[in-house]
Amino acid sequence: MRRVFTDFHVHSCLSPCGDDSMTPAMAAGLLKLAGYDVAALTDHNAVGNCPAFFRACESYGLTPLAGMELTTAEDIHLVCLLRTLPEAEAFGRAVDAHRIRIRNRPQFFGHQYQMDAEDNIVWEDPDLLPNATDLPLEDAYALACELGAVCYPAHVDREANGILAILGDLPDRPVFRHAEFREPEHRAEYCRRYPRLQGLRPLFGSDAHRPDAICDAQFSIEIAGTGDVASAVMEALKSNG
Predict the structure, then answer these.
(1) Which long-range contacts (CB under 8 A, 24 or more apart) does 199-202 make?
(2) Beta-carbon count within 10 A of 111 CB
(3) Confidence at residue 1, expressed as pLDDT on a 0 to 100 scale
(4) Which H, E and C letters describe 86-114, residue by residue?
(5) Residues of the chain with pLDDT under 70
(6) Where are the beta strands (DSSP E) in the chain?
(7) 126 torsion bin: left (phi>0), alpha (psi -120 to 50), beta (else)
(8) Residue 56 in contact with residue 28, Cβ under 8 Å?
(9) What per-residue confidence (pLDDT) applies to 240?
(10) What are phi and psi of 145, to 5 degrees?
(11) How far is CA 203 from CA 7, 34, 229, in A?
(12) Can you give the pLDDT at residue 79?
């Protein structure tokens, strides 16, 4: 067994709330410099910058995961992690069919840039990405699992788009295995207030939207073996341990 430092919740300039300087290559380079071993790019309801992120991670010696921060019909944010780009692309197409199309206004919400591996803008999504899809929570979770993702509620210790703030507690279904916290020190208090959290494995994501929000690596998970790191991470997340 070995431990790897992870950040499973990072945004790029494809998210309108992400800084335009937060290109996939910039994110990968800063994560590597901060001491991470594994990182996931999780833009809002989209995976379009994952290919460029994978290329940059390969150059920097960082293990990438593909991901998405999916917004349910209830306006709850879920982190969805996938091992490969083909899996991510299939998941992206599936979620795209459930997006509610509202024209983005970059002057208010920010640009939504899709980049190539050389940090060139190749496309800008014209429709606002972070707004709610038409997928209820259970359906969103089922779709993610069906397509091979690890899926869990994002930033449960945050009011905006947090599952606890919106529903008042963890629901009976779906049955999550993990919960993400923005701040590790919040976990004990939240577990006291919401006892159902006690049975969930805590994960900590930076939710970085800007270069200066990527901090030195602190959170790690234990994985098995000496083989493919990304596969071992996914296996660890899907295990019951």
Answers:
(1) 200/152, 200/170, 200/176, 201/177, 202/178
(2) 17
(3) 86
(4) HHHHHHHHHHHCCECCCECCHHHHCCCEE
(5) 240-241
(6) 2-10, 38-41, 63-71, 77-82, 113-115, 121-124, 150-153, 178-181, 201-204, 220-223
(7) alpha
(8) yes
(9) 64
(10) -65, -40
(11) 9, 18, 18
(12) 98
Distance of CA 6 to the CA centre of its chain: 12
Provide the CA 78 distance to its chain's centre, in angstroms: 8
What is the pLDDT at residue 183? 87
Order of all β-strands in the sheet with 2-10? 150-153, 77-82, 63-71, 38-41, 2-10, 220-223
Q: Tell me the pTM.
A: 0.97
pLDDT (tens digit per residue) in 158-189:
999 999 999 999 999 999 999 999 888 999 99
Any residues with CB less than 8 A from the CB of 45 and at least 6 apart, and which?
68, 69, 70, 71, 95, 96, 99, 129, 130, 133
Count of CB atoms within 10 A of residue 51's CB? 20
Percent of the chain past pLDDT 70, that is, above it, reads 99
Provide the pairing of β-strand 77-82 with 150-153: antiparallel
- The overall average pLDDT reported for the chain is 96
CB 136 within 8 A of CB 73: yes
